[in-house]
Write a structure and sequence with these properties.
Elements lengths: L5 H35 L3 H29 L1 H20 L4 H29 L2 H30 L4 H6 L2 H11 L6 H6 L3 H11 L5 H18 L2 H6 L4 H17 L2 H6 L1 H7 L5 H29 L1 H25 L5 H32 L3 H56 L12 H5 L7 H5 L9
Helix pairs in contact: 1-4, 1-5, 1-7, 2-3, 2-4, 2-18, 3-4, 3-7, 4-5, 5-15, 9-10, 12-17, 12-18, 14-15, 15-16, 15-17, 16-17, 16-18, 17-18
């Protein structure tokens, strides 16, 4: 087994560090809104606008991310993402009105959207096979670490109510990440895409000193030629049988991942905890951080089990925990204030169970299914479609959660999320393939056989027909 080079590890860690920036932004706006609301006199709809502007920007950034990465390079895209994020974070901190803050958040969202597309591509193309999975997972872990950091920074600044510092401090890690990234090479695949063969060869040798660089370059070149030949034909193939089923699966799964409400809890934790009966800066900002610490632990447990017990059991058990948590929250809110502090603790337990269940299932497996569900020639477009669906659902939740909480109350709001979680569980149970132990090249047989794994006899006959579920 070849030893991973220090440069390969540096590439993965540097790229994954962009996740810290993303996670910090998710949570620090939650704390900042507590004080922005008072200074600007924001209504609930205006608070939703501030949160939703970022997600709208993410959709635009994700749509442009693939083109940008191919045009100027993976590394340069991430450098500009980090620099742009720092600039727009400072613009948000300097905002003197709601329109100015909304525009800053929209532009900041564009940088995040680009990063969500480019970072996994950069890591997957740069990291050696032996370390690729772990380095890709590091991005998700870094995002949760960023969420925790955002809440804690908000708490430390809450005494002064300095929301400008909360938003502006995001520029510090962004600049540090940019300084780290700028010293790295781009990927061999991008160099080859641009005809820079010597740089591609040099990069491969630095990433994997013991690898056969010429053979790997030949394989990358063959893959690029196949993609060029495929062109728009890939999209047509995704929209026809048998791969229409796979396309609908990843798009629907992406939608369920966000519409079930996880980012409502991240964006609006202080408001939600206040409705639950908590008071004071510690309860409103540190308790959400502790929830994310538990979520991080759940993600790490999921990662140790994923290749042992399989994808479906982890995903279904995580969603089941979300359904149970919603039922607990509906009951706790429906009872009202009869049991006082004990009921507040039960509500906290419900939010904790929901977040842990989400991170254990959806949060850990989102990129696994995005990377495994479609054949190689469709994987990039399939992941893009899944991400777009995910972000659209995210925007919907960010835009309506506070209104739902006011108009429907806690019981009604979590009843809606409970129904959506139950629907997502039924969908996963019916349509999600178990890909544990399967070669990527073999997963297409599941879709070729109408959503069932074919028998070995059917595969041997070359038909992939008539298999068992």
């Amino acid at each position: 087994m070849r030893r991973t080079s220090p440069l390969a590890l540096l590439v993965g860690v540097a790229a994954a560090s962009v996740g810290v920036i993303y996670g910090y932004d998710l949570s620090n706006i939650a704390g900042a809104l507590l004080f922005i609301e008072h200074e600007f006199g924001l209504s609930e709809h205006q608070q939703e606008l501030v949160a939703t502007a970022t997600v709208i920007g993410e959709i635009a950034g994700a749509a442009a991310g693939g083109w940008l990465a191919n045009t100027i390079g993976r590394k340069r895209s991430m450098v500009w993402v980090s620099v742009g994020y720092a600039a727009f974070a400072l613009l948000g901190a300097a905002s003197t009105s709601l329109p100015m803050l909304t525009v800053a958040r929209l532009l900041l969202g564009v940088t995040i959207g680009v990063s969500v597309v480019v970072v996994p591509v950069f890591v997957a193309e740069s990291a050696p096979a032996a370390a690729r999975g772990a380095l890709l997972v590091t991005y998700g872990v870094a995002t949760v670490v960023g969420i925790i950091a955002g809440y804690l920074c908000a708490y430390l600044l809450a005494g002064s109510g300095n929301w400008r510092a909360m938003l502006g401090l995001a520029a510090v890690p962004a600049v540090l990440v940019a300084c780290l990234l700028i010293r790295l090479p781009d990927t061999a695949r991008w160099y080859l895409l641009k005809g820079r063969t010597e740089e591609a060869h040099r990069t491969l040798r630095r990433i994997e000193p013991g690898a056969d660089a010429q053979r790997e370059l030949a394989e990358i070149g063959a893959s690029l030629r196949e993609e060029r030949r495929a062109g728009v034909g890939v999209l047509r193939e995704m929209l026809r049988r048998p791969y229409l089923r796979a396309t609908l699966f990843v798009v629907t799964l992406g939608f369920f991942i966000q519409i079930t409400g996880i980012n409502a809890i991240v964006y609006y934790s202080p408001r939600l905890f206040a409705v639950m009966g908590f008071e004071g800066d510690f309860a409103l900002l540190v308790l959400p951080a502790l929830v994310q610490v538990a979520a991080l632990a759940a993600m790490l447990v999921s990662l140790t089990l994923i290749d042992r017990v399989g994808r479906r059991p982890i995903l279904l058990s995580g969603i089941a925990a979300m359904v149970a948590a919603n039922a607990l929250l509906v009951a706790a809110f429906a009872v009202g204030g009869v049991f006082g502090g004990a009921l507040t603790a039960i509500k906290f337990g419900g939010v904790l169970l929901f977040t842990v269940g989400y991170t254990f299932g959806f949060g850990s497996l989102v990129w696994v299914y995005a990377g495994e569900a479609l054949p190689a020639r469709m994987r990039s477009m399939g992941s893009s479609a899944m991400l777009t669906s995910d972000l659209v659902a995210n925007a919907i939740v960010a835009a309506v959660f506070l209104t739902m909480l006011t108009s429907l109350g806690g019981a009604g709001t979590f009843a809606v999320f409970g129904v959506l979680a139950a629907l997502s569980m039924a969908f996963v149970y019916r349509y999600a393939p178990e890909t544990k132990g399967r070669q990527l090249e073999d997963i297409r047989h599941f879709w070729d056989n109408d959503g069932r794994w074919p028998t070995d006899e059917a595969l041997a006959a070359g038909g992939g027909i008539g298999g068992s579920a």
